[in-house]
Amino acid sequence: MQKGTSPHTAGRRISFTFHQISRFGEIGVDVFFAISGFVMVLVTHGKPPGVTSAKAFIVARITRVVPLYWALTSLFIVLLLFVPSAFGNASLNVGHAVASYLFFPWLNWIHVTAPVVGLGWTLNYEMWFYGVFAVAMCLTRYRLLAVAAFLAVMSALHFVHAGGVAFSFYTNPIVMEFVFGTLVGWVYATGCGVPIAVAAAIVVSIFAAAKVFAPALTDSNRFLVFGLPAFAVVVAGLSMENKVRWNALLELVGDSSYSLYLTHVFSVPVCVKLLQIFDRQHRMPGDLVCVVVVLASVTVGLASYQWLEGPMNRMGKRLTMRTRATAEPVRN
Q1: Which of 32, 63, 123, 250 is the least crowded, having the fewest Cβ atoms under 10 Å away?
Q2: Which pLDDT value is given to residue 45?
Q3: 107: β partners
Q4: CA nearest to 193, candidates 37, 84, 20, 38
Q5: Are 179 and 37 in contact (CB under 8 A)?
Q6: Are 253 and 297 in contact (CB under 8 A)?
Q7: Environment class of residue 330 by beta-carbon count within 10 Å: exposed (0-12), middle (13-18) or buried (19+)?
Q8: Number of helical H runs and strand E runs in the chain
Q9: Residue 87 and residue 75 in contact, taking contact as beta carbons nearer than 8 Å
Q10: With pLDDT > 90 as the criterion, what percentage of the chain qualifies?
Q11: 8 A C-beta contact, residue 119 and residue 297
Q12: pTM for this one?
């Protein structure tokens, strides 16, 4: 603390710093999409084209994504039915609920294209990408090229035709962020990798361009304004992956990231409400509130991973293996 600076003033300064950092939190979604494209290339690398490979791919994706999301969607609907006052002007619509389970875009109660669990809009895009990827696996050995071309054409339609909710959703150029990830995945799948020097050059170039041009963020250019920096973040992270030894707890938090992502929509407001009850005079520094909320969210995410996501994934894998074994013909 500088001489002559009061604790109250210092608190405001730190809070301002946290506020500045939080402004960039939204890019996490774009990093998530780029990583998804990267991972899908790695898990399917070397798989032959055809229906069998595509089926195995899509079943694995459904087993991984659907159970926890459906469970939390159901929880949200139950809470909405029995404690509607907790969600302000939120209302339950059967069509909206069904669309949420099916990962289909639908306008919610505030006329925003989002499922019952609002952040699930990202999973709607994930499922769209998985579907496109699976079809490409069925049709051609050049699946990455096919996926990139199809999503590029769909994105171009966004600029030439105004359609309904589904059309606007599926033609949103944000899907090109998956393509950015597949490009990185292809490089790594071929065994090349990206040297730190090259990664640094990419990061500097992209962020310098963003600083020079500084375009206003819109839905149409997000894949560039946020997508390219997200691409740079993924490249930079991968270039240093083998040079950093992570703490076991941090690795566990990373493993629980899906649970953390889905449960924080519940844990954050609950934690904030409890803090408001505990600190009626609002004397807790904003920084401390942020730290407590983050720690609480991580704790809930870890619990969900341990007792919900993990068991669900293991059960899904067992059912998948059992179904596959039953479907295979018996050989004498």
Answers
A1: 250
A2: 95
A3: 113
A4: 38
A5: yes
A6: no
A7: exposed
A8: 15, 0
A9: no
A10: 71
A11: no
A12: 0.90
